[in-house]
Design brief:
This protein is 74% helix and 0% strand. It is built from 13 helices and no strands. The longest helix has 27 residues.
Length: 300
């Protein structure tokens, strides 16, 4: 089984960690782009089920032989299940948001989640939040308002789904922080894949392939789980070589990937106000990372 933490005496290579982390973010953005493409043509629960079922299959094949029953062994099963259901909600709402919003704008709204975690870190995690971090959070919210401004052309329902995604992601990140002290990250990820496969699988009798996918769409369906699995694997392995404080600012590179993929695949180019708002969100997140302990980045 892959070792997820560096062994004692093993030298870290921060640059390699940052590059692997950037690759993970590209894969996450690629998964969003594929999800958007498929969700425009097929029912969202069907797309989500394929994303999780392939992910579950890959994890079972790779980790089960070495871990055995340890792959489902947890000390705080209730919270692990709640965290998994949060990720299911994130996937569902994000796919509905992507049906109505450009990729870059939807991603930038999702990035309000790390800022919300900062707001809740004191009452929930008992962490001290300085004036500079509070200020960065407020500026970040202003950036989000520029992206979703009432006079803009974004679909209101899509924005609502993106905001619900951000709220669900906030709870997901807080639970991840709480569980990180007692739970194996592989086990938590396996439970997430298992929960998504079961929940979305229950909806299949109502949505199962109303329109049969083309050969390209079938390949894209299979790629969803692969992108998610490899993305999460790279995300985890990056921490073997680089500390969280160094990787956290790189998280906002995902906004760049989302913008590029949205342009290349869908021909969607954010306007000047939106680009300015995205820049503010990214700058605020980097400031939060530099001034203190950064909440876990957005993952899917």
């Amino acid at each position: 089984m892959l070792r997820l933490l560096p062994q004692a005496g093993t030298p870290r290579v921060p640059l390699r960690g940052m590059l692997v982390y950037a690759l993970a973010l590209l894969l996450f953005s690629g998964m969003d782009a594929v999800s958007k493409y498929l969700a425009l043509r097929h029912p969202v629960p069907q797309v989500a089920w394929m994303r999780y079922s392939v992910h579950l299959l890959l994890m079972t094949v790779i980790f089960a032989p070495a871990m055995g029953r340890g792959l489902v062994s947890t000390q705080r099963g209730g919270l692990v299940f709640a965290r998994a259901m949060c990720l299911v909600g994130i996937t569902l709402c994000m796919m509905f948001a992507l049906r109505r919003l450009p990729l870059a704008e939807a991603t930038s709204i999702l990035f309000v989640a790390p800022l919300l975690v900062v707001l809740l870190a004191r009452p929930v995690l008992q962490e001290r939040i300085g004036v500079v971090r509070w200020s960065a959070v407020l500026v970040g919210f202003c950036g989000v308002l520029l992206v979703v401004r009432p006079s803009g052309a974004l679909d209101g329902i899509g924005v609502a789904f993106a905001l619900v995604t951000a709220l669900s992601s906030t709870v997901y990140q807080l639970l991840t922080r709480i569980l990180s002290h007692t739970e194996n990250p592989v086990v938590m990820l396996y439970y997430s894949a298992l929960a998504g496969t079961i929940v979305f699988g229950l909806s299949l009798p109502w949505f199962w392939f109303d329109a049969m996918p083309s050969t390209l769409e079938a390949l894209l369906y299979c790629s969803l789980g692969l992108l998610g699995f490899v993305g999460h694997l790279c995300f985890t392995l990056a921490f073997r070589d680089a500390p969280a404080s160094l990787l956290a600012p790189v998280t906002y590179l995902q906004l760049v990937w989302a913008g590029l993929l949205g342009w290349l695949i869908f021909g969607q180019i954010p306007d000047g106000y939106t680009l300015f708002g995205m820049s503010i969100v990214a700058a605020s997140g980097v400031a939060v990372a530099i001034m203190g302990r950064q909440p876990e980045p957005v993952v899917k």
